[in-house]
Amino acid sequence: MIKATQCIRCGKARVFSKTWSENVGTSQVTYTQSVCPDPVCQKEVELLLKNRHDVAVNRIHESIRRRKENRGKSLLARRATILAKARENSVAGRKLAV
Asked: Cβ neighbours of residue 60 under 8 Å, at least 6 residues apart?
């Protein structure tokens, strides 16, 4: 039995809009999609979740970019780059822990 959850935005009990089953290997998996009963709220929730997803994807891409950038550098060169960025930020009025 599936318990109803609450909307993350308005707190109303979410309703089940779609249920389907798929075979994955030798197991049968049942998926249930729930939505907020208020259509305006559901659109806002979808936008919020899309923004969170985009931030997470950008974070992953930036991490991969930094790894590729640092792969060819020695440890001392990486440390010098970090210190230079910290100095730039402290000159601009922002203090960063090094």
From this structure: none
Distance CA 89, CA 69 (A): 20
- pTM across the whole model: 0.60
pLDDT tens digits, one per residue of 16-64: 999 999 999 999 999 999 999 999 999 999 999 999 999 999 999 999 9
Q: Name the token pair of 27.
A: 């197991």
Residue 21 structure tokens: 């089953």
Mean pLDDT of the chain: 88
- Report the 10 Å Cβ neighbour count for 37: 13
Nearest to 49, CA basis, from 32, 36, 64: 36
Rounded Cα–Cα distance for residues 6 and 14 (Å): 5
CB 69 within 8 A of CB 63: no
